[in-house]
Amino acid sequence: MQRISQSSQGFLFFLSNDSSAKILSLLEYRNIKMKLFLLYLLSINTISFLLFGFDKFLALKNKRRIPEKELFTVTTIGGAFGGLFAILVFNHKLSKTSFMWRFMFLFLLNTVGVYFLLR
C-alpha cells in the first residue's frame, strides 16, 4: 500500500470536499475572466497606439486626419495607456493643451477603472 504524507492527505481531503470544488470552479472562472480582460486591454491599447501613430503619420503627410472624437473614443474604452505611449513616442498632440487636458482626464479615469477591475 502506498503511503501518503500528512499534508497530501489534507490537500486531497480539501479537493474531495464538494464546496471546495465549487470554490475551485469559481476561481478558475475568475481566472478566465481576468485573462480575457487583460487580453482585451492589450488589444485595445495596441489599437490605440497604432491609431495615434497613424494620425501622426497623416499629419506629417498633410493628409486628412483622424478626428479627435475617434481618438477619445478609443481612449475611453480602455486604450488610454496605448494612447499615452503613442503621444510620448511620436510627440503627438503635445502642443494642443485642450486635447492634453481631456486626454489626461480620460487616462486617470482609465487607470482608476482598471485598478478597481483588477482588484
- Note poorly predicted spans: none
The end-to-end distance, rounded to whole angstroms, is 46 Å
- Kindly provide the radius of gyration, computed on alpha-carbon positions and rounded to a whole number of angstroms: 23 Å
Q: Estimate the strand proportion.
A: under 5%
Structural domains: how many: 1
* Main sheet summary: none
The number of strands is 0
Shape: elongated
Number of helices: 4
- Helix fraction, binned, reads over 70%
Q: What do the pLDDT scores average to?
A: 86
Structural class: mainly alpha
Order of helices and strands: HHHH
Please describe what this structure looks like.
The protein is an all-alpha fold. The chain has one domain. About 85% of the residues lie in helices and about 0% in strands. The longest helix is centred in the N-terminal third of the chain and has 43 residues, at about 20-60. It starts with 5 loop residues before the first helix and ends with a helix. The model has no long low-confidence stretch (mean pLDDT about 85).
